[in-house]
Structures are given as structure tokens and as C-alpha cells.
Amino acid sequence: MATSSLTKDFQEEMFNTVFHEMIEYLQGSVDIEEDASIPTATLITGVNMPDHTGVFRSLAERLRAQVTAHVAVLEAASCATVQATVRTMVRQLTAAGEPLSPDVPVVDEDEEDDCLLDVPDQTSRQRRAPATMPALVAHYEAAQETVASPKKGSPRKRARTAPQRRPLVVVWRDLEAFQPRVLQDLVLICSQYRSRLPISFVFGVSTCASAVHRLLPQHVSARLSLHKFHSQLATHCLAEMIDKVLLSPSMPFRLGGRALRLLLDIFLYHDFSVNNFISAYKFCMLSHFLWSPASALCCEPNQLEERVEELTGAQVAGLRALPSVRAYLDDLEQEERHTLQHDGVFKEWVLHMAPKLHSKHEELLVGLRCLFALTKRLPGALLGKQFREAYNLALLHALPERDEYKRTFQLLSMLSRQELTATLEHALEAVSGSGSALSTVLRTQLDRVRAVDDRPTPVSAEESSQQRRLVADTLKQATSRQSLRESLQSMGAARNARLNPYETLRSALLAELDEHLRGLIVQPSKWPFNECVVFDDVSLVRRRLVGAPRSSVQTALADPAKYLQCTCCQLGDAASIRPTMPDLCIVYKLHLECGRLINLFDWMQAFRAVVGASDDDQTIQARFAHCVAELQFLGFIKSTQRKTDHVARLTWGSC
Amino acid sequence: MNSAGRRTRKDSGSGDNSSRTMRTRQDSTIKDINGVLSVRFLDDADALEKICCISKTAPKMSRVGELLRNSQHLISHRAETPMSVADPDSESEPESPPAQPNAALTELNSAQLEVEDTVRGTAVFGFQRCHRRSHLRRVAEEFAQKSPVKTSAVDIKLPGTPRRGCSGLPASIGSGRRGGRRPVSRTVDDRNRSRSRSRSPPPARSRSRSKSRSRSRSPPPPQRNGRTPSTPKSAAGRTPQTPRGRASAALPTKTPQTVRRKVKLRLSKLKQEDIAVSDDDDDSDVSPLEDSSEDEYKAPLEEEEDDDEESEEEDEEGEEEEQTSTVPPAAVRGRGGAPRRRPELEPAAVSAEDYFSLHSAGGPTSNHTLSRLSEPRLSGAALRALLDARPTDHAAERAALLTDLEIMFPHWLAAVSHGFNILLHGLGSKRDVLERLRRQHLRERLHMVVSGYHPSVTPRQLLLTLLEEALDVPAPPSKLEAQLEAVERRLAAPGAPALFLLVHSIDGPMMRAEKMQYVLARLAQLPRVHLLASADHINSPLVWDQHKLAQFNFLWFDATTLLPYTEETSYENSLLVRQTADLALSSLRHVFKSLTPNARGIFILLAKNQVERASDKTFDGMPLSELYQRCRDAFLVSSQVALRAQLTEFRDHKLIRTRQSHDGVEQLTVPLEAALISEFLASCEDS
């Protein structure tokens, strides 16, 4: 998929630092003298479980490449008992040296018998030593010898290479999921072998570091020397991901505001999983290309020409009917609109307009980054703490008309020179890479701010003496404290009204900046042809990604006409029952009127009363019995022993 | 990349190989999107052929989009709208705004009001009650006549019966109508409030209330109506009807009854002059005091005004029919103080209060049992025969629902080929949907169907079948983990086919096990495994945790078919279906055949003993010592150890059941009915 290679790279990068530290630690662990405790790296991964698969996979890959070939990744699901755990661990640790072709199945010693029976050529199968700790020791020593043997140097040299023994790393994924008993036993076993095997552990902990101590009693955790590593926060990963993938200029596809908000909400309030976010993004992309006819123009600018050439008449008509295009055309003059009715002219116009979509998005980004940098140091986080929030806001609303925007400029107009300089520097930094006109504007502004003299204008001697006199007068005149205060306030206001050069410059600069930003920050839904690149069908995404199975079942039961589209079952009132409704719906509605226990016989009589006497008793009984079985299957009722011929209701209220 | 795109475009011009073109075309699109990518947008190209099938002539992907969209549009009315409405905050979709429950209720009732002005006096609902009551009585009488078992009218609990406590469901209908008879305007909450208030007093009081209720049922004397002075005209049919017992309890004791009556009369006269309201209002048995506490009915009053406006708009045609066929809602059943119904069922909207009110009191249900019926439990075969003989309702509509889903098939396959898995939810058996998908699109592909509703499906069996039948692995390992690895290895091999896994009821009784879901999640994660599953149980999402959901990577589709769950429920121990022992008997025969002669002898001895003592109520098994003694006498075993070995084998095959009696003696029984055992013994003697 489009994003996968990008996202993979970036995920590796995200974990680069923490992996690097861990690897250094593990490499160093071999040197620790014998009989010491087992070096253990506790990797705190966070609660975003779905992402962990990727994290641990790349960790294992990296360990294999950089530290040792002996790496075992243990998962709780396959480690129910100590025996199984030891077997899995030893299998993985010993498998390292041998190149194993994927097609050749591995034979477990427990399974030999049944395998031998039906496999004609046993040579293709590999025989293994039993997977126990002594076997592991033997295997490891043999492996060390083969490594050491080519260097048949002097004993001294061998002694020097001896510390270069490769450690055995056991990675425990999701430590909390393991049975504490198994974990404790295995730690004790491994610490027994520590003198012969340089075993070290990596604990993947998803909650907090104290989980290790909760799982292991003191006498066990004393055998470990724990070292804590923090992995990257999921929100950081997401921010990176959005910056590198969603906003990248090489990506012609864009998410609309509402869709992006839904995806962010799922991330923040549901699972914190970057992988799920990527998957949802993939789905949005897929739906865009599959369902939106306008997506034909969603391509790189250099291919646009050919695409436009190939547009069929129907497609052109479809493009013309896009809401954004229609709105744009309505604003045009009559004759201009008329000429655009011609397909050839329209195509040319499309060629003219469509590339602007990408440049407009770039402009929006530049403007937004600048604005975000400006607000970042202001109190109150007006546009949110993350750039994605500001971006989402700009997609959803016409930002320059919003209060947040106006408030930003109000606050900016109160900054001192130092603060304004720093803010502008930040903004310049944010947009410098884009090479847009805004950066030059900011640079000149910065220069002007630096150059200006922010001392108050020197007050002429006459003026000052006049002022002094005025103050003296007022002081004399003041008869009460209140009047004195009033007069002083009015004097102060009069002085404030006169701006110093810095203040005049500041207001001018901000006005200029405001004008530029207003030009840049245009809501995408205002662009003509935005439907070609922007996908914003949020209800579709919600239906597909956030399943609501229960509400669909209950809607169908309560008001089957919504699905059946029949005239006979239209309900004036949601709670009423019609005999024409499907039997299941009738039985369901009758059961809603009951308490916790339902008398089957009475229920059936009620059913009979509703459906009428069209059928004979046996048939009604059969219909009813089937419906009861269905309700039981759906989980609304269950059988109960509390009273003869009663069932228990499993739901409450009106559903 | 560019050149590739160009070439395909030429192809598309010729249009000879449209499916191929389609695919490459999409690839190129995606390559466009991302300058550097190595992964193709559509790695399972074949799956896309299916999409192309519907757009053979269309060289453009966006054409497919158009087609799909059109089809989507077609069905959007049918299938998608309810879902989107059910969405709490889906933007758009204004087409079917959820009707306000009260508005709907008032609309209905006011319509009835208009239609029935002939009987208007007894206030709207009086008529309806009579009507409904007579209908129900008719039905009940018909049933009583037909039914050979003697069921009196009282048994059937006619709605008129005032007793509430002992009533079963029909009574609940009655109470429902009582609710419906209430003033149109009272909101559900109000109703609730007053009810809960009136329920709170101790039992003695509630008894008095029920008495008063039964009294109020008799038609009130005409001079009493319209006596509520402060009630505005519109509220005539709405007069609050707090049960009388409560009202009298709250009455000041000073004013003698006669005085009050006089005052009432005068007031009512005044009122009659004022407002020309028609006579005999059923609901006017309200004391003046009640009127002073009018404020609690403020909300209804407003509703009433709305209602009047609405009733003016109401067109009268078809209302007559509606009145006869619609059973008005039972307001609140007994002490379940639940608001009856919201227009859209949103589980989130259910208040927690409902739970406690449901569980706070024991349900007063009647003591009727199914033995009143001529045949309390139908056999499975008879049930099916009866249902088959009956024409299904809404056949055309249900077929249309299925066809709508068929239109979605290419979309599902496209999504599946991009690493998503499909989960179908919604009411009705989705077996047919997946079956159609299989027949139409997956015939030629490698696929496997798992019937999750089957009670004997296990993870091991699933994987074994997968390995042996689908993937042709000659000697699959026996361990679960190893099996999984074998599947992964096999499917990771280059050139391995894509496997479509169709799972009916992924939340079936056996599928809920952790192990099963673990296996399925592992499989679903594989790039070459495409899972299409259906879920039926209302709590099915509870099966998956965060991690598994991510592994499954589901796209949810509403596949409401409203088809009967015939196949799915046939394995279930249904409450109303007689368990046939055919299965047990045949398994018994099979096991019995493989026993040694001595073991057979032991079993026959045990079985015969049980048949002989079948009529003995106190018999609950043969003591072990007695069995041993008899076996020794018959030279069947020589030691207790040998007997125990045999018994263990029986137990493993579920031929016998052991139970410890209260004095610690082991007692053995054959877990079958006596008739079956004798049948079995007879067949043994024959052979």
C-alpha cells in the first residue's frame, strides 16, 4: 500500500534512539562477571498494544543484526507452562545458527511418532535435540567454539576474544500477560545458568515499570539487574506520521477535516495505535479511489494532462456537477459560464485549475505553520498544542473568521519587542524550508523590528514642563481620593494614546502579516475541484471502522420497515406492534414489556393475540418457538431454572 | 513509473484486456501518490478482476467508482439509512429524522381522537380500550374453544382483569393499553415519575390503589366529568390520573366528603358553561386537590398544544385501519419503570436506572406452564415442517435486501484484497449472504467455510482441516502452535494462493473461546488470508480486545437480511423444542459395538436394573458395591479394580454417570430415559 513503506521507515526511525541505547546496554551485558544477576532491559512501551508487534519485530531484527544471533521472542499465548516456555525459548535460541528453509517443517520430539508414520523421506526433516536448558548450554558452547575456532591464535589472543561471547537475548513481549508463576520459575532457572550462559532479558512492559515488581517477588527480582528504557510516545509517533505522510507534498490525496477528526478521535480516545490510524487512513484512500469519480484527477501534477485528455463526456459532466465547481461557476459571469459549458474549454480550465489544488495545500500549510509558530508562545494554546489540531481546525472552518484567529492577533499586538522578535524568529524558522513569499515577508519584518527604536519618543521640554504643571494642578485640585484617581487615569490614557515608534511598527507589521495569512489560509472546501483530492465522507468511514452491530440489530427488530422498506409495517409510534411485522420483531417487542423473568406460556398467548388467528395453534406455536430460539441465539434471553417454563431476560430498559 | 502508466493508458485505449488494464491502472495511480514505493496498491490482482466484471467496458478506475457509487446510491435508501440514523452523530442524512416518541405517540392518539368522534365522550381511549379488549377477548375465546386443555378466560388474563401482580404477558398488553389510554400528552418520563411515586408506598397502599383502579374502571357517573375547574379546554382529555388511592391519601381530612362533592359539582357546572366539553370523561375522577398540584403536569400541557397542532395536520385516511391493527404500546410494565421506547435504539441512551429498576424486584409473572398446551414441546422435525408449510412474510423485501448486499460483493473483495477483513452484522441469518458470495466469486479460489454456530468446531479441528484439505500439507503437526506456524509457513511461500476464510457466526458458542479467537486473529493477520465473517450475538464485540481487533482489521458492514436463523438455531438447545434422543441412542449403539463381551454384560446389567426400577421415585442410581456383587455373580469381572477400569471407559464415553449419594456411596446411572434404554435393550437382544 502507498503508505506502508513510508510508515515503516518512519517507525524504525522513531525507535532508533531507544533501540540504540538498549543494544549498547545488552552488548555491555556480556562483560558482566559471572554469577551476577541477569541484566534486564525493561522497555516501557505504552498501552498502544496493536503497535507492539511491529516494535518487537524490528527490535528482534536489530538485535539479530547487531548484537547476537541468539534471540528469542516469547509471547504469553505460547507460554502457558514452564515446560512450554523453556521449549519455545530454547528452540528459538538454538535455531539462530542454522539456516532454516521455510518449507521444511520442524519436528518436535513429542511429535516424532505421528510424523514418522506418514512421511516417506525423513531426510528432509530435521531432527532436533530435546529443547532443554542443558541442550542449550551444549549448543551454545558448540556454537562459540565454531566461532572461535577459525582464530586459532595464541591462548592470550583467545582469552581476549573470550569476552566477545555473544549474549543470549530473551525478549518477553507484554510481560503483564505472562503467568507470574511461569515468569518467576524461568527467571530462577535462567539465573542458575547465568554462569554458563550469558543470558539477558528484555521485558516489554506496557503499563509502568512497577509492574515488574508486582509480578516478581523480591527473591526473584533480586536475580535481575533492571534497567529502564522508555519508548517513544504514541502521540509523538502520530505527529511525525501526520507530518511525514499525510502532509507530505508528494501525496496528492488529502483527508478532509471531518474525516481527519474522526481518525484522530479514534486514536486519542480509543486505542492510541498508530498502526490502526494508518489502517484507517488506508481505508479512506481506498474508498476515495473506489467510490469517488472525481478521484480520476487525484494524481501528480505532471500526469494531470494525460488524465484530463482521457476524461469521457460523462466524467466531465460529473466534474462539472461537483458542488465546489458549481459554486465557483455560479460566481462567474454569464458568458464565461457559457463558454465553460463546452467540454474542450472546460478541460482546459480543469488543467488550469487542478494543479492549483496542490499549490493551495502547500500555501495553506505554510500559512498554518507560520500561524501555529506565532501562537505557540501565546498563553492559552489557541490553536491547540499540536500542529495537527491547528491543521484540523483549518480544514473544518474558515480559520481567519474564527475567534481563535482574532484572539491570536490581539495577543500578538501586546507583545514587547523581545517577545515579538522571538516569535517572528520562530515563525520564520517554521516556514523557511518552504521557500514561499511569506518567509521573505517575515525576514524583512524581523529586520524592521530589530532596527526600530522602542524608546519612547523624546518628549520636548515644553511639553514636559506643561505636563508637570498639569500634574501639579490636578494634585492640588483633587479633593477626594476618587477624583485624584480619575484624573490620574485620564492623564495616563492620554499619554498611552500616543504610540512609540515600536508600537506603530508592531501594528503595521501585524496588519501586514494578517493580510498575508488570510491570503494563504483558505479552507480546502472552498477550492474548486477539491473533491478530486479531498476525501471527507465521514459517515462512511465511521460506519466501516466503528462498527455498531448492536444498534443495527435493534433498529431492525424495533422497526423492520426501515430495512424492509415495506408499507405494511410502517410504525406511527416506535413502540407499537403490527401483526404484519416479521414474527421475530413481534416476539422481541412483546418481550420488551416484561421484567426479568418471562413466562413462556403467557408470552406465546400475547404473540397469538397479536398475530391473530390466521394460523392454527400448532403453527403459531412453531413460529413462536422458532422466534424464541432466535432471540436466544441473539443473546436477548436465556433459559433459567428459577421458575418452570420461564426464560430470563438479558437486556434491560427499552432494548 | 511514468512509462508504465503511459503504456497502460494505451492499453485502455484498445480496451481489449480491460481487467488487466484496470489493475495496472490502479497500480499506477498509487505509484503516483507515493513517489518511491515498492508495495503495490493492489497486491492481489485477481481479486480486482471481480470488480472489473461489473465494469468490463470501463477502462477507468473512476468508472468503477461511478458504477459502484450508483449502486451504492441505489441501496443507500434501503440499507444504509437506518444505520446512519442510528449513528449518534453522523453528519448529514436528514432524510429520516428520528421521530420524537412523544410526538409520535400524541400524533397517533390524536388521530384516533379525530376519527372516533362518535364515541368521543368516553374520551378517546375508552373506546380504544373497549375495542382492543373485545378483540383480545375474541382471540382468547377462539383459542379456548380450540384448545383441548381447559383454559378459562380468566386464565388468559384478559386485559380487563384488574389484577396486576399475577398477570403474565397478556396482562402486560392490558397494562400497556392502560398506558395508552392515558392522556396523550403525558411524557414518558412523567408517566414514569408518577408511577414510581405511586409504587413507592408499602404494599398495603398499593393494594388499595389497585382496588381504586378497579373501581375507576367502571364507567364513571356522568355528573363527575369536566369537574376540573382550572383545566383548560385542551387538557380535557389529558386530566392527570394519578391513582385514586394516592389522591385520597393526600386529601385533607377536615373537609367532609359531602361538602367536597358539592363544591365539585358547582365547579363543574361553572366549567361546563365555560367550555362546552362533551360528557363522560373517563379520566375525570380527580379530586380538586389534584388540580392544585397541577404544576407537575406542566410539561404535558405544552405537549398537548403541540399535539393539537399536529392533529390538525393529520390526514385521516388510513387511520381507521391503523387503529385496529396497531397494538398500542404497553407503557411500562409493572415495576420496570423503564421509559418505553426511544425512536432510535441506541444502547448508549439506556439509562442505568433501568437496570436497577429491572433487578430491584422479583418479576410477578404468572404460574402458567407450557403443560397447558396440547403439545408443550414440539419436536425439531415437526417444527421445521410447520414452518416450511407456511409462506414467509415479506419475501420480496427480504430478497431485495439480499440483492442489495450482492451489489456490495465486489466492494468487499476489493477491500479484502487490501488487507482488510470483512465483518457482517445486522439482524437475520447472514449465511445466505456469505454462501452467495462464495458461489458467485470464490468458486475458483481457495476458500474454506467455518460454521461457527456448530457446537463442535474447535481450533485444532479448524487448523487441521485448513492444513489437510485446503493447503495440502501431508502430515500436519498436532500441536496448535505448530499448526499455526505450519499455516504461516505454507502461506508465506512464494506462489502460495490467497485463502478466503468464510466464517459464519464468528461469535458462535464455540467460537467465543479465547483460543479460537487467537487462532482466527493470527490467521486474519496473514497477508494472504482474507477473512469474511458474520457476527450475530448482540454482545459479540466483547469477544475481541484491542489487540485482536487490530489484528482482525475489520471493516464493518451492515448486512441486515431479516432471514430466519434456521440453520444456526438448529444446534441450540432450544427452550421450546423437544430434545430428541436419536443422537444419544445412536452414539450409544456405536460405542456399545466396540465393547468387549464382558463390558457389554456390565452395561446391560446396569441398564436393565435402571429400567426395572424406572417407576421407583426414590431410585437414584445403582450403588457400586451392588453392581460389583452382581457382576461377580454373573462372572463378568473378577475384581473391583477390573470393574472400575470398565466403568472409567463407560464414563469417558458418557455412557454412565456417577453420583455420590449423601452417605458417600457411589451411584451409577445411565443418563437416558427409561423408554430409550428399553428400546436399546430390545435391539441388543435382537442382534
Task: Describe it.
The complex is a heterodimer of chains A (about 650) and B (about 675). Chain A is α/β, with parallel strands linked by helices. Chain A has three domains: about 1-100 and about 135-140 and about 165-230, Rossmann fold (3-Layer(aba) Sandwich); about 235-455 and about 520-535, no CATH class; about 550-650, no CATH class. Chain A is about 60% helix and about 5% strand. Chain A is built from 32 helices and ten strands. In chain A, the strands form three sheets. In chain A, strands 2-3-4-1-5 form a five-stranded parallel sheet, sandwiched between helices. In chain A, helix 14 (about 305-310) packs antiparallel against helix 18. The longest helix of chain A is centred in the middle third of the chain and has 34 residues, at about 345-375. Chain A is extended. Chain B is of the alpha/beta class. The model of chain B is unreliable at about 1-65, about 70-130, about 145-255 and about 275-350 (pLDDT under 50). Chain B is flat, with a radius of gyration of 35 Å. Chain B has a five-stranded parallel sheet, sandwiched between helices. A three-stranded antiparallel sheet of chain B has the order 8-10-9. A two-stranded parallel ribbon of chain B has the order 1-7. In chain B, helix 2 (about 20-35) packs across helix 3, helix 3 packs antiparallel against helix 17 (about 395-415) and helix 17 packs across helix 18. Chain B has helices at about 1-15, 20-35, 45-55, 60-85, 100-115, 125-145, 170-180, 190-200, 205-215, 245-250, 255-275, 290, 300-315, 320-325, 350-360, 380-390, 395-415, 430-440, 460-470, 480-490, 515-525, 545-550, 565-570, 580-595, 595-610, 625-635, 640-650, 675-685; strands spanning about 380, 420-425, 445-450, 500-505, 530-535, 555-560, 575-580, 620-625, 655-660, 665-670. The N and C termini of chain B lie far apart (about 80 Å). Helices cover about 50% and strands about 5% of the residues of chain B. Classes of the chains: A alpha/beta (about 650), B alpha/beta (about 675). At the A-B interface, helix 1, helix 5, helix 13, helix 15 and helix 27 of A face helix 1, helix 2, helix 4, helix 5 and helix 6 of B.
